[in-house]
Design brief:
Elements: H1 3-21, H2 42-49, H3 53-60, H4 69-78, H5 83-93, H6 110-117, E1 123-126, E2 132-135, H7 137-142, H8 155-161, H9 163-168, H10 172-187, H11 194-206, H12 208-215, E3 225-231, E4 235-246, E5 253-263
Antiparallel strand pairs: 1-2, 1-5, 3-4, 4-5
GO molecular function, one term: DNA binding
Pfam families: HTH_31, MLTR_LBD
Domain HTH cro/C1-type: 14-86
Length: 266
């Protein structure tokens, strides 16, 4: 079957199911007369999200129609969708959520920190702004000037503003270019985030290298690979970086990435 048709039908089933879960009292409507079926009526949902009843009917029927992001946002609010549910709604509709919840604005589940602490090799979790949200003791030992002591935990500020990063990271400029290209991939999904835009403006002014690399417009995924360091205490270190997105693990957080640095001999 055509994947577009499949997505439309899935969207209709999703909206229909979540409408059925809501009672009038849940959304501040009078209960009124006895109902034959549970949940809100289509006309009630339509009124809540500023649509016509016909449009709500067509959505639930999987009709071929275009839904804008504003209409989807109102629909998500009317259905009282959580973060993951809202993201799923937008994905089924083939639209990018312009708002979302940025990881730096919410509380990290303790299970993530506990899981990172249980890893024996250097490991850390980054959010979309490149802020370290969790790390373990081996990572704190390795990343002098970033994850040890009382430092700013933003990876971009560390790389482009801290002298310690140039001393630690071998093949520095190539690695800096790679990290910035990975950040740009996340930046495109959070362009409405004032803090993220402010970070780019700050570093463009403060670091000529950042300004030059940012102007290059390179975009890369965080794929891992070999990393080499000149550690002030441990000397030369070669490690293989392995990175996972936490979308399917530990609470389902696609906005977070876990990186591990597995030591390599030789």
């Amino acid at each position: 079957m055509d994947p577009v048709i499949t997505s439309r039908r899935a969207l209709g089933a999703f909206v229909r199911a979540h409408r059925a879960r809501l009672s009038p009292a849940d959304v501040g409507l009078p209960i009124g007369e006895r109902r034959r079926t549970p949940g809100l009526r289509r006309e009630e949902l339509a009124r809540l999200c500023g649509m016509s009843t016909t449009w709500c009917t067509w959505i639930e029927q999987g009709r071929d129609m275009s839904l804008g992001v504003a209409a989807l946002s109102r629909l998500a609010a009317a259905l009282k969708l959580g973060r993951a549910e809202r993201a799923y709604l937008f994905e089924l509709a083939g639209k990018r959520d312009p708002v979302g919840v940025h990881p730096a604005d919410d509380v990290l589940p303790p299970s993530i920190q506990h899981a990172v602490e249980a890893i024996s090799v250097p490991a850390y979790v980054l959010d979309g702004r490149c802020d370290a949200r969790a790390w373990n003791a081996p990572a704190a030992r390795l990343f002098v000037g970033w994850l040890d002591g009382d430092h700013d935990r933003n990876l971009l500020r560390y790389i482009f503003l801290s002298p310690a990063s140039r001393q630690l990271i071998l093949d520095f400029e190539r690695r800096a270019a790679r990290v910035l290209a990975e950040f740009r991939a996340d930046y495109s999904r959070h362009m409405a985030d004032d803090a993220m835009g402010g970070l780019v403006e700050e570093l463009t002014v403060a670091s000529p290298l950042f300004a030059r690399l940012w102007a290059a417009q390179d975009v890369l995924g965080r794929d891992g690979g070999e990393r080499t360091f000149a550690h002030p205490l441990d000397g030369f270190i070669r490690a293989e970086q392995v990175t996972w997105t936490l979308g399917g693990a530990i609470g389902g957080r696609p906005d977070l990435k876990l990186s591990m640095l597995v030591p390599q001999s030789g």
